[in-house]
Amino acid sequence: xxxxxxxxxxxxxxxxxxxxxxxxxxxxxxxxxxxxxxxxxxxxxxxxxxxxxxxxxxxxxxxxxxxxxxxxxxxxxxxxxxxxxxxxxxxxxxxxxxxxxxxxxxxxxxxxxxxxxxxxxxxxxxxxxxxxxxxxxxxxxxxxxxxxxxxxxxxxxxxxxxxxxxxxxxxxxxxxxxxxxxxxxxxxxxxxxxxxxxxxxxxxxxxxxxxxxxxxxxxxxxxxxxxxxxxxxxxxxxxxxxxxxxxxxxxxxxx
Amino acid sequence: xxxxxxxxxxxxxxxxxxxxxxxxxxxxxxxxxxxxxxxxxxxxxxxxxxxxxxxxxxxxxxxxxxxxxxxxxxxxxxxxxxxxxxxxxxxxxxxxxxxxxxxxxxxxxxxxxxxxxxxxxxxxxxxxxxxxxxxxxxxxxxxxxxxxxxxxxxxxxxxxxxxxxxxxxxxxxxxxxxxxxxxxxxxxxxxxxxxxxxxxxxxxxxxxxxxxxxxxxxxxxxxxxxxxxxxxxxxxxxxxxxxxxxxxxxxxxxxxxxxxxxxxxxxxxxxxxxxxxxxxxxxxxxxxxxxxxxxxxxxxxxxxxxxxxxxxxxxxxxxxxxxxxxxxxxxxxxxxxxxxxxxxxxxxxxxxxxxxxxxx
Lengths: 255, 360
Ligand SMILES: Cc1ncc(C[n+]2csc(CCOP(=O)(O)OP(=O)(O)O)c2C)c(N)n1
Ligand code: SF4
Known about the structure:
The complex is a heterodimer of chains A (255) and B (360). Helices cover 40% and strands 16% of the residues of chain A. Chain A is α/β, with parallel strands linked by helices and 255 residues long. The longest helix of chain A has 19 residues. Chain A is globular and about 50 Å long. In chain B, the strands form 3 sheets. Chain B has a 7-stranded mixed β-sheet, sandwiched between helices. A 5-stranded mixed β-sheet of chain B has the order 10-12-11-14-15, with helices on both faces. A two-stranded antiparallel sheet of chain B has the order 1-8. In chain B, helix 7 links the parallel strand 6 and strand 7. At the A-B interface, strand 1, strand 2, helix 3 and helix 5 of A face helix 3, helix 5 and strand 9 of B. Strand 2 of chain A pairs parallel with strand 9 of chain B, so a sheet runs across the interface.
């Protein structure tokens, strides 16, 4: 008997990505694609791509896609979902996109209980523009625009978006996961699947934050970057479920 | 169709519904809020999409998303809000999806006031956002024309997959006039380029990125080629008292309408003056204006509720030699027919077309 140990997900194009070696954007893409395959929703899913390193995400998924302006993905997704309520619409956004320029859009999409799914890649830095401070950069973290380390007295404090959005009436499923090891990656996939199922069931706004590595701009090797996520990011951004409506729990129980 | 007494903003909103508007997203701002209010009821009644967005930035990006799915989508605002929409307009234009935006202009810059103004002329005709393009801009001067141009706006947006702006001001939006409202049109089918989920076909992507200069230049050339077609086919204008006119008064929207009264008074006083009212601000109706000038116009009076923004387009058409007087009111002030008449008389007197005693 043969067992399949690896298969290329249908929902992913069979091409190599432009992401740096060791970048966890690729892992996040793969998890989403597997979920789309498992739920059988490839032909009804629409991706809203962000501005940031994932700006070309629509090149990698085999689903219909649109490209939003920086931070506006939740607004665009709202326009799409309202016009096509029976399709599955997801945004894929970095921390600059979602927690800086697009803060208003994500908070209000959640407040409206917009029936969309958001995958939030938190790598505590602006990757695409070359490593500037993000709203999620940690205190003392050195970036090209916080060369002495982020000083909250000057640069403000990091924002914990998951906690913020979980507090909003209208969000149905808001959780934080990490991509720094296999165990956490498995949990992340499960959460992504739930977030899509929440939308299928029409339960409201769902967001999965994924703590991610940016070895290039952190100036670390790929393994050290994963270690940095575990040792520095996880303590500041505790993993866990921050909002899970009972109706979502019922979904998960049926799983 | 029956004649009804209709308020401008409500008339535009209802016309949009009857033209097949499927998704509206907006944010309140005076003097256009009745548009949003009317649609908040009508769209829901009809099972269509209405969302009051958290900002104009969000509203135009919701329009962008909806337009990508192939529905007829619209937002409306006034000057400060349209400033915020510039980002989205640029992306929509680059992505070559259709949308309609209503701008009921008010006095600026800054918060200014809510009085009628035409000070967004540059903002709407030049590019409406960053990059190289012009939106199509339609400027009604009455409630009836606002209704008709709303239908046209959706048709042009679809035809050219382009941004169409309908610009008025508080006067057009707030006044009540008798007008005919066309019957409800059926919703048109979604176009085949739309983003709808890739069932039974290969995936569609709508994006405005073209990373290399070569790719982006090609995309820009495609947009420019389309603009050239629009320029050749969509110039529109209205004329009054044009027969034998040697002085031409040019004004759009409210200013054009007020100027019409002044031109009538001048004609009654025997001055050979006519009114030329651009209806498309972009493309500017240059072919017709050039023809009128060739027919013997010797001087022009431009009437605008701004500092002379449209005058620059007039100058481009008529050249440097043509004398042009500007009658301009700023910051929300509306010109008076008697004041415009004085300028017409002065110009006519200089040309020997009116005696010193023409108008008291
Ligand atoms: C309106 C606007 N402002 C700024 C930029 C420049 N910009 C591009 S990507 C980016 C930051 C992206 O960071 P993030 O969202 O965290 O994603 P990452 O690249 O780290 O994956 C910025 C500021 C832009 N494209 N548009
Ligand atoms: S810059 Fe950072 S986030 Fe961007 S692809 Fe490279 S490693 Fe990934």
